[in-house]
């Protein structure tokens, strides 16, 4: 019996996930979504988009001025990406756990970044995915990538 247990839908948590252009280009979107679903989180929204400069400036506002900011924005503009809203209790921390730590060289095996990403010797770490880091970030980021609602 593979049916998931009924979820308590009161205040179910949502997180914004991006499959970054490296993941999309490498054909890893299905793998990422499959790990999200296998973990038991539900896809609430899904979209393939080319990020606008305004979206990236808003999404990465906290990193403006850092040495990797310009390369990060350039990388995130280098091709289509996949934006998704996932939901399930604990999914913000849960997704960041299955994503692995930021630096793909040391991200744990078994995680998305640990299994699928590596150091390419570039200024910016190309690490396949983004996941919101708090409920406040999730609400802010969902509004950036799904401005018309879910
Ligand atoms: P996170 O994606 O693991 O939450 P953040 O600190 O929010 O990490 O950084 C956003 C993105 O910027 C990272 O995913 C990575 O692509 C890139 N990045 C962060 N720190 C560095 C760094 O020190 N060097 C190069 N790229 C970085």
From TrEMBL:
Residues that coordinate or bind ATP: 20, 68, 96, 102, 113, 127
Keywords assigned by UniProt, alphabetized: ATP-binding, Cytoplasm, Kinase, Magnesium, Metal-binding, Nucleotide metabolism, Nucleotide-binding, Phosphoprotein, Transferase
Cofactor(s) the protein requires to work: Mg(2+)
GO biological process: CTP biosynthetic process; GTP biosynthetic process; UTP biosynthetic process
SUPFAM superfamilies in UniProt: Nucleoside diphosphate kinase, NDK
Highest taxon in the source lineage: Bacteria
Spans through the membrane: none
GO cellular component: cytoplasm
Nucleoside diphosphate kinase-like domain mapped to chain residues: 12-149
GO molecular function annotation: ATP binding; metal ion binding; nucleoside diphosphate kinase activity
Pfam families: NDK
Catalytic activities: a 2'-deoxyribonucleoside 5'-diphosphate + ATP = a 2'-deoxyribonucleoside 5'-triphosphate + ADP; a ribonucleoside 5'-diphosphate + ATP = a ribonucleoside 5'-triphosphate + ADP
Active site, renumbered: 130
Localization in the cell: Cytoplasm
EC number: 2.7.4.6
SMART domains tied to this protein: NDK
Protein purpose: Major role in the synthesis of nucleoside triphosphates other than ATP. The ATP gamma phosphate is transferred to the NDP beta phosphate via a ping-pong mechanism, using a phosphorylated active-site intermediate.
Subunit structure, as described in the record: Homotetramer.
Similarity comment: Belongs to the NDK family.
Name of the protein in its database record: Nucleoside diphosphate kinase
Lineage: Bacteria, Bacillati, Actinomycetota, Actinomycetes, Micrococcales
């Amino acid at each position: 019996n593979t049916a998931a247990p009924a979820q308590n839908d009161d205040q179910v948590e949502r997180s914004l996930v991006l499959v970054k252009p490296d993941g999309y280009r490498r054909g890893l979107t299905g793998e990422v979504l499959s790990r999200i679903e296998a973990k038991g989180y539900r896809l609430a929204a899904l979209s393939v988009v080319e990020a606008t400069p305004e979206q990236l400036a808003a999404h990465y506002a906290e990193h403006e001025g850092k040495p990797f900011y310009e390369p990060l924005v350039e990388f995130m503009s280098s091709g289509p990406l996949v934006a998704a809203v996932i939901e399930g209790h604990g999914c913000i921390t849960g997704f960041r756990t299955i994503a692995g730590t930021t630096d793909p060289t040391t991200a744990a095996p078994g995680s998305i970044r640990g299994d699928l990403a590596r150091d390419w010797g570039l200024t910016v770490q190309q690490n396949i995915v983004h996941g919101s880091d708090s409920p406040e970030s999730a609400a802010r980021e969902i509004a950036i990538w799904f401005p018309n609602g879910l």
